[in-house]
Structure formats: C-alpha cells, structure tokens
C-alpha cells in the first residue's frame, strides 16, 4: 500500500490554475525533493496534501484510503492529517516554553502527560535542543526555531513528513545542522518525506528521488542521480544549469 497517491488534482484561484497533477504516487520510506522556480506551486502542493487548502478537484489515497479532497469533511480531514506532519516555511513559535511548543500537538491528541514528557524529550534530543526545553520559544535564534519546528512535527511520529523549504533564511552552519537532523531521522524512522527546497544541491544531497514542479505541473520525476545528470525536459535542463531565472 502506498503512503500517498494523487489522482486528477487541480487547485485554482478564480480562473487561474495553480496546480494540475493528473497522477503521482509516493513510496514508503522514500525521501522526495521537490524543486522548481518560485511561484511554481510547491507550497500550494504541500498545503493541499496536508489538507490545509482545498483543491478544486481531485482525490488523494493515503495508505489506500481514498478521499475526495475537494469535498473532505473536517472530521475525516483531521483523521488523515494525523498521519502527517507539516513544517511550514516560516514556522511560528507560540509564546510559551520550547517544551510546550513541542508538546502542543500531543495535547490536542489527548496523549497523557507522562507519555507527553517522554516523547517531547526524545524529539528535542533528535534536534539537539534538549537543554532548551525550559526556554521561551520566542527567544530562539532562527536556526533553533526551525529545529523546534522540526521537533514539533517529529514528536507526532508521522508516517508522512512534509517540509516546505526547511532551511530557507538560515546561515550555512544551520543549514548543515538541519540537514544532519533530516539524515538522522531518516535512519531512525521509516518515514516518507516530501521536501520542497530551492537549494538544488540540498535536494541532491538528501533525496532519493526528485520532482520538478513548473507552472503547477510535475514536469519530471526521477531518481536523484538521473534527475541531475540526465534531465529529460528542456525546462529542467535550464533550471539545473541556471539558465532559467527564478
Ligand atoms: N491562496 C492563494 N490564492 C491565490 N493565489 C495563490 C494562493 N496561494 C498561492 N498563490 C499563487 O499560486 C502560485 C504558486 O504559489 P506557491 O505555491 O506559493 O509557489 P512556490 O511555493 O513554488 O513558490 C503563485 O503564483 C502564487 O502567487
Ligand atoms: Mg513556496
């Protein structure tokens, strides 16, 4: 059973089609890098997958459980959302401690307090910020906040992790730290990861497969090495060689 399959997905704003994906599927335990020019629809894609945004049409199969995403009810949506975790490009920190920021999702899910503490410690350890548990989350640096956002997602033990540009706006040292964390969690957990990134080299370093999203369409999808070494479509060749301005 595949973690995620997409059928006839379209997202529109008025007359404008933002996303059009006739079919796509994602395998268990695989990390996918999603690249493409700015405005291609990458963030829209992740938001629709996480059911934060309703498509105009289309269905998603999540572990074989097919849902009409355009007509999804809230209660059914919540059930599906709980299999996933989404890290937004600019994650907001709540004005509480780091610990409470990470524990929040578990509270919503009714996880008992003692178990919560255990899971939060484990997640903080994964991102190397166990010592920051008692600090005010709004006092964190950009890199630390991004790590806490990751911990907030990981604590939920999602089967599907959706990352939207997890290292944009970070300095090289913090980019390296986030990349190490992603590499480590992939070793420790069987998760399917979809990561949008504008760093082509990051997609190449971390992903098993890459997708090129252009003007709302998946133009190309391939194993990472082939994706970069022998891109088939001209638009992807231009994008990789830097000829496409983005
Ligand atoms: N809620 C929205 N309503 C209307 N247009 C939107 C909305 N969200 C995004 N867009 C437009 O859709 C296109 C894709 O945006 P986005 O998914 O953010 O692209 P990317 O993440 O690839 O840069 C852009 O042209 C953007 O202006
Ligand atoms: Mg985006």
UniProtKB/TrEMBL annotation:
Top-level taxon of origin: Bacteria
Pfam families recorded: ABC_tran
InterPro entries (alphabetical): AAA+_ATPase, ABC_transporter-like_ATP-bd, ABC_transporter-like_CS, P-loop_NTPase
Domain ABC transporter: 4-240
Gene3D superfamilies: P-loop containing nucleotide triphosphate hydrolases
Signal peptide: none
Keywords: ATP-binding, Nucleotide-binding, Transport
Any one GO molecular function term: ATP hydrolysis activity
Name listed for the protein in its UniProt record: ATP-binding cassette domain-containing protein
Organism annotation: Paenibacillus validus
Classification of source organism: Bacteria, Bacillati, Bacillota, Bacilli, Bacillales
């Amino acid at each position: 059973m595949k973690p995620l399959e997409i059928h006839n997905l379209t997202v529109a704003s008025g007359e404008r089609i933002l996303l059009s994906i006739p079919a796509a599927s994602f395998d268990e335990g695989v990390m996918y890098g999603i690249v493409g020019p700015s405005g291609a629809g990458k963030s829209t894609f992740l938001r629709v997958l996480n059911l934060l945004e309703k498509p105009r049409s289309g269905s998603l199969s999540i572990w074989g459980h097919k849902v009409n995403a355009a007509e999804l009810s809230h209660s059914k949506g919540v059930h599906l959302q709980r299999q996933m975790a989404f890290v937004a490009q600019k994650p907001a920190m709540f004005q509480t401690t780091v610990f409470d920021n990470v524990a929040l999702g578990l509270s919503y899910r009714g996880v008992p307090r003692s178990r919560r503490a255990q899971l939060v410690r484990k997640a903080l350890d994964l991102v190397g910020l166990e010592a920051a548990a008692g600090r005010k989350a709004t006092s964190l640096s950009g890199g630390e906040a991004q790590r806490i956002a990751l911990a907030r997602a990981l604590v939920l033990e999602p089967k599907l992790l959706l990352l939207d540009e997890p290292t944009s706006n970070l300095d090289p040292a913090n980019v390296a730290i986030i990349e190490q964390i992603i590499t480590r969690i992939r070793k420790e957990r069987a998760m399917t990861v979809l990561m949008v990134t504008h760093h082509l080299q990051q997609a190449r370093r971390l992903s098993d497969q890459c997708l090129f999203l252009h003007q709302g369409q998946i133009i190309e999808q391939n194993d990472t090495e082939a994706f970069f070494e022998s891109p088939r479509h001209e638009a992807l060749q231009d994008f990789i060689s830097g000829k496409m301005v983005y």
